[in-house]
Amino acid sequence: MTTPTVTQSNSQTTRPRIPSRWERLRDSYLWYSFKRDHTAQLCLAIFIGLVIVAFASPLLAPTDPYDLRQIDIMASELPPFWIEGADERFILGTDAQGRDLLSIILYGTRVSLLIGFGAVILQALLGITFGLMAGYLGGRVDALLMRLADIQLSFSTLMVAIVVGAVVKATMGGAFYSEYAIIMLILIIGLAEWPQYARTVRASVLAEKNKEYVDAARVMGLRSKRIMFRHVLPNTLSPIFVISTVQIANAIISEAALSFLGLGMPETHPSLGSLIKSGFDYIQSGSWWITLIPGAVLVILVLSINLLGDWLRDVMNPRLYKG
Amino acid sequence: MIAFLIKRLMHAILVMFIISVLAFAIQDNLGDPVQQMVGQSVPESEREALRERLGLNDPFLVQYGRFALNAVQGDFGTSYFYREPALDVIARHLPATLELVFASMLIIVLFSVPIGVYSAIKPRAMLSRFFMGVSIVGISVPVFLTAIILIQIFSIGITITLFPESTGWGSWLNDFFSTEGNMPSFGRGYDLVQVFGHWETNLATWNGLQHLVLPSIALASIMLPLFIRLIRAEMMEVMQSDYVKYARAKGISMRRVYFVHALKNTMLPVITVGGVQIGTMVAYAILTETVFQWPGMGLMFLDAINRADTPLIVSYLMIVGVIFVVTNTIVDLVYGLVNPTVKLTGKPA
Questions:
Q1: How far apart are CA B162 and CA B268, in angstroms?
Q2: How buried is residue B274: exposed, middle or buried, by Cβ count under 10 Å (0-12/13-18/19+)?
Q3: Which of A57, A83, B292, B317 could cysteine-pair with B215, CB 3.0–4.6 Å?
Q4: Where are the domains of chain A?
Q5: In B30-79, alpha helices (H)
């Protein structure tokens, strides 16, 4: 962290030192509240831990589940270590194909997180751009974009994602879809959920755009694009920040739902959702761990993000758009 | 009121038009129905004849015109797989989904209102904190996972051997936490009662109700926490308002203030959100029906996708579109009626 010291040594009047970003964060209410909230600390720790473990999965996982040579079909459906009949090579047991459950969960978490983050970035790009345009430009642009958002939201984002996923898969064929599943899922979930961002951004842009600093920028002759992105956008960041956490959790759940319906990641490169799906076929034969252990990981991941989102909303307390 | 109705109607028609174009565009691009309908040995000339007979060789606009004209008359084409009108297939599957959604809504309303109101009135009570904790966990568990957990516990059964079996309390606790698992988790059961037409109901017999229990709880589990949190938040806001303070100052009994004065205004946003969530319920019904093999519209839709049964896919999309548009319009109207501050002719707030 650099501390921009602007004290002029030769002048008598010393200007007040501008605090660095780190110092501003340390003095902020956000940090103060974080220090006192043990739930938030725990959740952040779990979330960061899961992200690190997931993205380091090629280094940490005992086996490479994508490598068919390392899979032994004879070792399929072995239980986790605390149940009789377990094999010490497989701590959490194996799935129906004989893949080490721990390794495949680590890799699967990485896929789920990748799609979650990717989809939220796409949503944010689309939603922020459209929300800014709708709020700042107003008029016809606003009417058109918000009508579009209303229609799409009235169909519920999951429904849109399921229908688009199903249609794309049926049109392009299963093999093609599986090969580009990560990109497809990011596109589908990203396109299905942009209205959430657009509405939030639009609501705070409407509150901001009549303030003096916007008028001043306009009087200076700045172009609309610059005013929107450089002046208005930074002041709408806190609600964006809050819904981003919730949206990551939503995107991960949507991905899991699509994969569970067979419209997502293929079983050769499973996400947490497709692991749950493939394990579900074996639950009646008593192998509950294949479906419930990935399920538990999914719940812990989503729960920690949701609790962080709750805490953030309480701290920042923006008037979020309901619904 | 009339002006508002007409405006809403125009909007609904526009949305349905967009849906029909999209649905038809799908039909035009989706798979090759002829390949699905005939066997390997059928020669190309016969396939071509079949294509011609089904009208698959006509230009896009001609096909759309024919499709729209038929759709308005209630003819959505013939399902390639069932070989009967697609609307009949949907009509046969619709009651199962409606009953499932109805049972879930019942659970949601019965539980969310008392729990939401209680945790708003006593936000610091242990029980309220427990409910809020459970509800955030509930939001974080995807609906299909809830369904799988329910199946494991109540249908397959779990045996707990965590506590020492030798001691009396240990075996008692083991028995207490173990479940037998005799709840049905597959389909609608054998004991359906025909009401009229295609409508066979689960609600009339014990066996039917038993089959309905797990799926409806699973489907309710995703919405219930949302409604509890919403009702709690709205109720807490209403409790801060001047008219509630005034009612309390007048000496009206607290029960009356809570349930007559405050609850009325709490329900306003609940109606709007509830209407929107009906759509989400249809989406989650697909997941629930998949897990429980519940023979409703959602399962039918997924099967239709796998069979490239385009008329069925398209009619499902159209029917779901109608359901969404109708519920949204009704919600807007009801909201206008119960909230006198909304001017129906102007832009509804």
A1: 48
A2: buried
A3: B292
A4: 78-320
A5: 33-37, 44-54, 60-72
Residues 6+ apart with CB under 8 A from A46: A300, A304
A78-320 has CATH 1.10.540.10 classification: no
ipTM of the complex: 0.81
Q: Which residue has the tokens 């920690």?
A: A304
Element housing B264 (H / E): helix B263-292
**How confident is chain B (349 residues) per 10-residue block, as mean pLDDT?**
79 84 75 67 79 74 80 79 86 88 90 90 88 89 89 80 72 74 74 71 78 90 89 87 88 86 82 78 88 89 83 86 83 75 50
Enumerate residues 139 to 158 of chain B having a beta carbon within 8 A of any beta carbon in chain A.
139-145, 148-149, 151-152, 156
What is the spatial distance between Cα B92 and Cα B199, in angstroms, rounded to a whole number?
Answer: 7
Residue with tokens 């497989």: A90
Contacts of B31 in chain A (CB under 8 A): 170-171
Dihedral over alpha carbons A117, A120, A125, A127 (to 10 degrees):
-170
Question: Whole-model pTM above 0.95?
Answer: no
Beta bridge partners of B199: B196
**Closest residue in chain B to residue A308, using alpha carbons only:** B136
Quote the Cα angle for B322-B323-B324, to 5°: 90
How close A302 gets to chain B, by Cα (Å)? Answer: 6
What DSSP character marks residue A228?
I
Nearest chain A alpha carbon to B291: A280
**Can you tell me the distance from the alpha carbon of A177 to that of B17, in angstroms, rounded to the nearest whole number?**
29
Question: Are the Cβ atoms of B324 and A155 closer than 8 angstroms?
Answer: yes
Determine contact: B80 vs chain A, CB below 8 A.
Answer: no
Residues A190 and A122 sit within 8 Å (Cβ to Cβ):
yes
The torsion angles phi and psi of A173, rounded to 5 degrees, stand at 90, 145
Amino acid letter for position A279: G
φ/ψ of B40, rounded to 5, equals -65, -35
CB contact under 8 A, A154 and B324: yes
> What are the structural domains, with CATH classification, of chain B?
1-57+309-349 (no CATH), 88-170+205-307 (1.10.3720.10)
CA atoms within 13 A on the CB side of B82: 20
Q: Which residue of B has its CA nearest to A151?
A: B15
Which of A129, A133, A195 has the alpha carbon at shortest distance from A160? Answer: A195
In angstroms, the CA B239 to CA B233 distance is 10
